[in-house]
Backbone:
C-alpha cells in the first residue's frame, strides 16, 4: 500500500491513526511539555512520510517509527540546549520548571513525583527506564531502537531503578 | 521494582487538549502538503541556482582568461608601419600624384628649408657682428688716450 502512489496517502493516514498515541506519549515523556511534543510528533510523521519509500521491511514498522520518534525528541532537546547555550543540567532544570507552568500536567499526583525523579537521571537511563517501565518493551526491542547492547540496557535500567528509589526516599 | 509499580501504577501526570488525537492526522497531512509545496519550490530554485552558478563561474573564468591574456600581451595602441607597409602605401597612392605636384612639393620644401636656414643663421650673424663692433670700439679707445 505504501509503494502504490494511489494508496500511499490512505495507508499513511491509517498508520498515523494507529501509532499516534503511542508515539506521542513516548515523545512527551522525553520533552515533557505538550507544545514541544506536538512539534516533535509532527516532525516525526514528516520524517516517516519522507522515509516510507526507503523503509526496509526486515525491520518491524513499530520499531522503525519508535526509533524516528526517539531520535527526533532527543534532537529537539539538543537543539534547545544549543539555542539557549545551556549545559545539560540547566535543560533538565528547565524541563523541571515546565511541570509547574504547563496546564496539561497534573500538578499534584504521585506520578508527577516519579517524573521529577526521572528528570534527575542521565538521558540514556531515563530513556531506558521509560521504555522498560512504562511501555513494557523487551530489551531486544529497546536494543534495536537505541542501538545499545542488551547487557548495557539491563545495567542502565538497574542503575535507573536504584537512583529513583533513592530520590523518592529522600523526597 | 514491584513496590514502585504498586505505588505509581504506571500512570503519567500528562494530559492533552480535548480532541487532540482526532485532529492530529489532519494536521499532519496539512504539514506534509505544505512541505511538499515548499520542496517543489526549493527544488526549482536549486536547479535555477545551480545553472546560475555555472553561468557565473563560466563568465568569471572567461573574464580571468581575457585579463590574463592582455596582461601578458599588452594592447599596442600605435602600430608602427613596417617596410612592406610603405611599399604598399606608395603602390596604392602612386597614381594620385602627377609630376607637377611632385615638383611643387619639392619647391615648397626647398623654400621652407632655406627660410629655416636663414632664421637659424641670424642669431649667429648678429652675435658675430656685435662682437666685431665691440672690438672696434675698444681698439679706438686704446688709440684715443
Residues:
Amino acid at each position: 500500500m505504501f509503494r502504490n502512489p494511489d494508496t500511499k496517502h490512505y495507508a499513511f493516514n491509517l498508520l498515523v491513526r494507529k501509532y499516534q498515541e503511542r508515539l506521542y506519549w513516548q515523545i512527551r515523556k522525553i520533552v515533557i511539555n505538550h507544545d514541544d511534543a506536538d512539534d516533535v510528533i509532527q516532525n516525526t510523521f514528516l520524517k516517516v512520510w519522507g522515509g516510507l519509500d526507503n523503509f526496509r521491511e526486515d525491520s518491524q514498522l513499530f520499531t522503525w517509527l519508535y526509533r524516528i520518534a526517539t531520535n527526533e525528541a532527543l534532537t529537539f532537546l539538543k537543539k534547545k540546549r544549543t539555542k539557549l547555550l545551556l549545559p545539560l543540567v540547566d535543560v533538565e532544570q528547565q524541563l523541571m520548571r515546565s511541570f509547574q507552568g504547563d496546564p496539561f500536567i497534573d500538578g499534584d499526583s504521585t506520578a508527577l513525583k516519579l517524573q521529577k525523579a526521572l528528570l534527575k537521571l542521565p538521558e540514556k537511563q531515563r530513556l531506558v527506564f521509560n521504555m522498560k517501565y512504562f511501555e513494557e518493551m523487551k530489551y531486544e526491542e529497546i536494543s534495536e531502537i537505541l542501538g545499545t547492547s542488551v547487557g548495557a540496557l539491563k545495567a542502565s535500567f538497574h542503575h535507573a531503578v536504584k537512583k529513583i528509589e533513592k530520590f523518592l526516599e529522600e523526597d | 521494582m514491584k513496590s514502585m509499580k504498586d505505588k505509581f501504577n504506571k500512570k503519567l501526570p500528562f494530559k492533552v487538549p480535548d480532541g487532540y488525537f482526532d485532529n492530529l492526522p489532519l494536521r499532519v497531512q496539512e504539514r506534509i502538503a505544505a512541505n511538499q509545496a515548499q520542496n517543489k519550490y526549493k527544488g526549482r530554485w536549486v536547479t535555477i541556482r545551480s545553472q546560475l552558478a555555472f553561468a557565473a563561474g563560466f563568465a568569471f573564468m572567461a573574464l580571468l582568461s581575457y585579463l590574463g591574456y592582455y596582461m601578458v600581451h599588452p594592447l599596442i595602441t600605435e602600430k608602427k608601419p613596417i617596410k612592406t607597409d610603405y611599399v604598399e602605401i606608395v603602390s596604392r597612392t602612386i597614381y594620385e600624384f602627377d609630376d607637377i605636384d611632385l615638383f611643387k612639393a619639392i619647391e615648397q620644401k626647398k623654400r621652407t628649408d632655406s627660410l629655416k636656414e636663414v632664421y637659424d643663421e641670424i642669431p649667429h650673424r648678429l652675435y658675430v657682428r656685435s662682437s666685431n663692433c665691440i672690438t672696434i670700439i675698444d681698439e679706438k679707445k686704446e688709440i684715443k688716450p
Q: What stands out?
A: The two ends of chain A are 52 Å apart (CA to CA). The interface with chain B takes residues 9, 13, 16-17, 20-21, 24-25, 28-29, 32, 34, 41-42, 45-46, 49, 99, 104-107, 109-112, 114-115, 133-134, 161, 164-165 of chain A (CB under 8 Å). The helical segments of chain A are 8-31, 34-51, 61-83, 88-101, 110-118, 123-134, 139-146, 150-170. The mean pLDDT of chain A is 85.
